[in-house]
Each structure stands twice: as structure tokens, then as C-alpha cells.
Amino acid sequence: MKASDPIKRLSDIKSEIDALKREAHAIIESLKSSFDSSLSSSTPAAPVKRRGRKPAAEAAAAGEEAPRKRRGSPLKGRKRPASPSGPLAPAVVDVLRKAGQPLNVAGIYDALVAANYVFTSSDAKKNLAARVYKLPGVKVLGDGMFGLDEAAAS
Questions:
Q1: What is the C-alpha separation between 17 and 1, in angstroms, rounded?
Q2: What is the phi-psi region of residue 143: left when phi exceeds 0, alpha when psi lies from -120 to 50, beta otherwise?
Q3: Alpha carbons 151 and 137: distance in angstroms, whole number
Q4: Of 8, 25, 80, 95, which is least packed with CB atoms within 10 Å of its CB?
């Protein structure tokens, strides 16, 4: 009988191992299903907030107005027209040289018109006011006054 005892014991151990494996699989499956259900029932993570304008479809879905269509340049694909009286920078430097004193934008504009300078923009005074700060040969003196930059003018 002693010979059958180890074999019986081995058989019992094997059946216990199988029962433990089934129990472990059952526990793992129940944990998986509870984890999956907790993921599906929780609120989804908020999408990453983008900077800038929303794409048109996203804006429409949010009930917002569609973004305005951008106007194309009337000169697209063509060379921009040059002023018949030449580039702006040398003309402004000539005006400041002839004036002999600092001038403001209005004074420069009036002197350019008097010198028959032809502007290509629709609002020439605003264009001049924006561009005069970066023109080579022109020095910003402060308080809206501009003079000659001797280093660049010579």
C-alpha cells in the first residue's frame, strides 16, 4: 500500500493545482471585466486644447459661426507695382536732406507729394507712417520726428 500512497498523493496534488489554476483564471477574468467596465463608464479624457483658430468643421459642430474666408491678394502671382517715381527710402532721404531739419510723418508726406512722388497704396499716409520707421537712411528721433541717419545716408 505504501507504493500507491505516493501515486495517490501525486494525483491529489495535480488535481489541487488544476483547481487553483481554474480559480486564478476566474479571478483574473473578473478583474479584467471590472477594469474594462470602469474604463468604459468613466468620462473620457479631455482632448488636448489646441491654440489658434478651430478648423471649420469643429467650429460648426460647436455651433459657432464659420470662420471668414480670407481674401486673396489682388496681386497674387504677379509682381508688385513699383512707384513710377522710384523707391520710397531714397525719396524720403532726399526730402529730409532738402528740409535740413527733422520732420514728422505729415511733413515727410507733404514734401513727397510736393516732389510728385507717386504712391501705389490706397492709404499712402498710413503706409508711410508704418514704413518710415524701418527705412534705411532714416533715423527715429523720438516724439514722431525723423531725421537723417548720417552713417547710412552717406
A1: 24
A2: left
A3: 8
A4: 80
Would you say 102 and 146 are in contact if contact means Cβ atoms under 8 Å apart? yes
Dihedral-angle region of residue 141 (phi above 0 means left; psi in -120 to 50 means alpha; beta otherwise): alpha
- What is the reported pTM? 0.49
| Structure confidence by residue, pLDDT tens digits, 85-100 | 788 889 999 999 999 9
Give residue 80's pLDDT band: very low, low, confident or very high (50, 70, 90): confident
- Chain position carrying cell 480670407: 70
d(CA 151, CA 154): 6
Residue length, the chain? Answer: 154
% of residues, the chain, pLDDT over 90: 34
DSSP state of 3: T
CA–CA gap between residue 115 and residue 103 (Å, rounded): 15
With a pLDDT cut of 70, the percent of the chain lying above it is 82
| Chain position carrying cell 507695382 | 81
